[in-house]
Design brief:
With 274 residues, this protein is an alpha/beta fold. It is built from eight helices and nine strands. The chain has a single domain, classed as NAD(P)-binding Rossmann-like Domain (Rossmann fold), CATH 3.40.50. Bound molecules: nicotinamide-adenine-dinucleotide.
């Protein structure tokens, strides 16, 4: 489905991003993968290459203001074009609002809203003129071009302890719809995929003490056992999704099967929120 396409996936060192990168490669894409965690990212690349795929790793933080331009430049140098951008990198930094610091609030807006905004802006110079020229010459764009932004049920419905994350994850829905309107006449699609409970490091039991290192800070991840159990009980499909099931939603929206879908938020939630 993605033969000879070039696909960028951020946050592809583990979890949903790693599963998506592998799935895109299985479907013929050349993938550019990014993550903060260079070692985890390398293992994604090794897995893709040992299965016969093509991958380039570009480690770094998506919140570094210069990083998006660098990522696009390296992708173009390596493969000469970009077809799909998946803005997936992210983490949670939970706390009740009355105890939430400005830093905690801003960090979530930085990674879930500002970084995707800068990624999309960095694509503009590669995509807009190329699409315009193709349309002028032949009447239609010659390359598929689309963006998939990752949102969450926390953004669509709110979630206790996640005022910061929920705001970022709903912000990305507004960004998605706006890009769909601004770039639609160039044949460029932009959709969001909002996940419910996906079984990754982000959603492990708090007891497992999973953490992410952001600069000098080590931030606790995971959710309390009571909430994990309660969540499973109100998911119509009755369980969390695997990272591969989540990644399939991303591929669906990036694929030719979604050629006339733009500005949409696909809920991959096992039925939560219906
Ligand atoms: N797991 C879920 O239930 C769930 C639900 C809704 C939305 N999401 C979203 O899905 C996306 C992927 O999450 P996941 O569950 O796979 O988590 P994960 O922790 O398994 O993987 C996320 C990856 O993103 C990387 N990352 C974080 N900040 C980064 C940065 N600044 N620059 C580059 N890489 C960075 C991490 O190092 C990690 O490898 C996130 O945007 C998350 O908010 C997940």
């Amino acid at each position: 489905m993605f033969k000879d396409q070039v696909v960028i996936v951020t946050g592809a060192g583990r979890g949903i991003g790693a599963a998506a990168a592998k799935l895109f490669a299985q479907h013929g894409a050349k993938v550019v993968v990014n993550d903060l965690d260079a070692a985890a990212l390398k293992s994604t690349v090794v897995e893709i290459e040992s299965a016969g795929g093509v991958a380039l790793d570009v480690p770094g933080s998506v919140t570094d203001p210069d990083f998006p331009d660098e990522l696009m430049k390296l992708s173009m140098e390596a493969f000469g074009k970009i077809n799909v951008l998946v803005n997936n990198a992210g983490y949670t930094w939970d706390g009740m609002i009355h105890k939430m610091t400005d830093e905690q609030w801003q960090a979530m807006l930085d990674v879930h809203a500002t970084a995707p905004f800068r990624m999309i802006r960095a694509l503009a110079s590669y995509w807009r003129d190329a699409a315009k020229a193709e349309i002028q010459n032949t009447g239609v764009p010659q390359q598929p071009r689309c963006i998939v932004n990752i949102s969450s049920t926390s953004g669509l419905h709110g979630n206790i302890g996640q005022a910061n994350y929920a705001t970022g994850k709903l912000g990305i829905v507004g960004l998605t719809k706006t890009i769909a309107k601004e770039w639609g006449n160039l044949g460029i699609r932009c959709n969001a995929v909002a996940f419910g409970l996906i079984d990754t490091r982000l959603t492990q039991s708090k007891h497992q003490n999973e953490r992410i290192q952001i600069g000098e800070r080590s931030i606790a991840l995971g959710i309390p056992d009571e909430i994990r159990q309660a969540a499973a009980a109100h998911i119509p499909l009755g369980r969390a999704a695997t990272p591969e099931e989540a990644a399939s939603g991303i591929l669906l929206m990036a694929s030719p099967l979604a050629a006339y879908i733009t500005g949409h938020t696909l809920e991959v939630t096992g039925g939560v929120g219906i």
